[in-house]
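Minutes, project check-in
Item: structure for the 280-residue chain
Input as provided by the requester:
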Amino acid sequence: MLFIIKPIWAVVTALVMAIVGIAENPLPPAEGENCILVGDENYMLEGYLLRAQDVTTDGTYYYFSSNFFLYKTTLDGISVKKNLFAIPMDLLLEGLNHIGGISYAGGKIYAALESNPGFERSCVIVYDANTLKPTGERLLLPGEDFVNGIPWVAADPERGVLYCLKSYTTCTLNAYSLDGLQFAYDVDLSHKQFSWIQGGDMYQGKLYLSCNTQNTRYKQVWAVDVETGECRVAFERDVGAANVEAEGLTALATPDGAVFHIVDAGKLKLNVHFRHYAMK
């Protein structure tokens, strides 16, 4: 049977690569507003399914999220561990069926989990970074407050809190304690209307947010002062087409000069780019 399946799979893969290659042209330029693209990895099929939502890092490994999956690799892309059933069954039965943004802190992965479509239920769930299994820590969020779900979370170990917004576009940053997942405080942001924030991470004391800026190929990354709420555009990047979806990001200074590492879903949702940016 394998001698039949392998050639068929090879043909399917080749066809997908050809279709994606045509759809992705022209490739985005190496430079954007205040940033330089220093690396671009294109993943298809299983590689896409395992990386479709967000990325975080502990400095040694990358951790990726997809709708149902968590995936761990080395920084140079070697597979380490997969959890293909990352959503606990009791939460699945309650309609929580979509893992979005993730963030690493203290040996744990904090994940945004929501019901999709509808967004009636939202939850923060915690995983062990070694095993990618749930630790049992979770925070169910009130539907009346999170009417648009919880698309992302960002851990701030320095301040001992986890940040999120009540929707993709809201202007109030909410902080929950990393220890116990209790509400701590909120911060009013100076920018009042973001365009579909898909993920965030801390870098040098600032919160950086990846925005799927609508109806344009130029996607923005915002920098937020979490003490004052002041917001500014850190950089803008060209992803090649308006219907490429900017997903989550993580921050890590790597030897090639990159600092921000961002997941972008391809136009046909058959592939993802994992792009690496240095700052000008």
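Outcome recorded: Residues 8-19 have pLDDT under 50 and may be disordered.
No further action items on this chain.
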